[in-house]
Amino acid sequence: MTPAETRGASTPDAAAPTGHRAVTLDPPSVTITAEPEPATTTPTTTEAPATPGARRARRWRWTRRRIDLTVYGGFLLAAIWVTSGIWVDPAGRVAALYSSDPAQVQFFLAHSVRVVLHGEFPFFTEQFNYPDGVNLMANTAILALGIPMVPVTLLFGPAVSFVTLVTLGLAGTAAAWYRVLSRHLIRHRPAAAVAAWFCGFSPAMLSHANWHPNIISQFLLPFIVWRVLVLTRSARPVRDGVLLALLVTAQAFINEEILLFTALALGVFLIAVVVQQRERWTTAWRPLGAGLAVCAALAGALLAYPLWVQFAGPMAYHGLSDAVRDYGNDIAAFFAPGSPTFGGNERANVNLAPNYSEENAFFGWSLSLLVVGIVVWLRRDVIVRALAATGLFFAVLSLGERISWWDREIATGPWELLVRLPLLDAVVPTRFGLITGVTVAILLAYAVRRAWALRGVDRRTARKLTAAGLVLALLPIAPMPLQVTTREPVPEFITADRWRKYVGPDQTLVSVPVPAMGNTDPMRWAASTNLDFKIPGGYFLAPRNGVTGDPGRFGGRPSGIGEMLREVSSTGRTPKLDDRQRRRYLDELRHWNAAVVVLPRDEQNAEPLRRTVEQLVGPGRQELDVWLWDVRKLTSRSA
Q1: C-alpha to C-alpha distance for 414 and 397, rounded to whole angstroms
Q2: Given CA atoms 237, 283, 266, 201 in this order, what sign does their dihedral have?
Q3: For residues 410 and 403, is the Cβ–Cβ distance under 8 A?
Q4: Which residue, 42, 272, 486, 633, is most buried by CB atoms nearer than 10 A?
């Protein structure tokens, strides 16, 4: 079995690697080449010498390499356009509405620096949420992205590394899909370019570009898909299984959830093909089974210890919190344009997605109708039917546990039956829409290729109509620059290294308010020093109450002083502390082994916060741009 041909035999690809036959997603291979001009002969006259302009015109041709480089360059320029607002000032600008995830990613990038320069343990850290620490394997520490970015992080800082990853994630994903589709699966450059554009710059990718470089960095996925399809007819399944295992291992250190989605999508797609053409299974099961067995053995060996740390190590959690597990798409979200697109409207999309970083559908009416038309038009094609079934299956799962239409619940979703299964209990269901997006992209490629090869009509007319249809469908969801907002700079007290004379290796710098999901600026402070000091709290996933194996939640153990300072920051009201509260909060500072308490002078409601801290530890003093309390005598073991 191979999801290669739909009718008849596929044309072998001369460039296919030795050891397996070519794998395509349609019968004949189609490529774009420059048509040579017809030769003319003039035996009795002498040809006039060509002018310099004519010679230059003859020398310039749109070769395959130049076409590819132009497409790659277009993807890069589009990615720079999308991230241009952040590139203006990477350290001082962040995506609007919500800034916690970028700070977390910058913290992880600084952790990669410590792994490379100091040999720090890569899968667990005590540099935040001290002293309990954080299980980094359970928090997508993006080691496969952060370690290659170490030179950039050292030279320019984690903020520049963050926007670089976002830019390369968008452009790299589109470029990878273009290469695999144009060389191996579709083998038609215009069709591959259209599909790759949507894979790299769909509304869902633009939404995640605000905060999640680990999710948009999907440049390995096309190669994983291709290698699995190769296995269905491989003559060297061991070698191909090894190659697949290396890709799987690398992707696991970028984002495991996306890897799981890829495996599920491939499984559903191949089943959909076999159900229609059962004879394919007789030729495919041996190489596919052998290759996947080799892949599972090698990838399992490489990932065994990291996965043990993730699921059984310290601060491991089992399953996500109910708040995230309930994230699902509204049916209407598939017909609205995404917020960060040309036709998008943030207010119009309210309640159609869990938040603005999880707009995982939002294809718009025109594209949705076009895709339905493509499926109807090419309904006799086995692969088209399999792609349609796969996309629809995961679109339904993305609706979550409760199916709704314009924020009105209408039924219980099938995800209700799957949400508690192992591995799936850690999945955010709305993100299944990402799989639907890829199937939509490949269906577009199918349609473009088939339209390009139409016979019996004027070819130019067919191509113009195809281009017009694509513009009509894709223009409303064309990418726009990400909306950004300014954020407070890292205090000079931190950047000038004044903290170093107070904070020892096993002590913490306690910020006011205490770091948490809604207050991640102190994580940026620590990241700017390559995590040279520890902090309590932070934004991360951990087991409830810090008990390994419990269901996950955002943040560590509940903190009395943290909750109090957060309330003061939001309300501006100064509480009156009694002796019991003082003893309790001082015990927390001792638990954190706090060296100093730091309050930026420009913090929201800084004056009420200062008065509150002074009730607890006494008068503070100004040092550069912060209020500072040296609490080492209060938190020492002897005290």
Answers
A1: 7
A2: positive
A3: yes
A4: 272
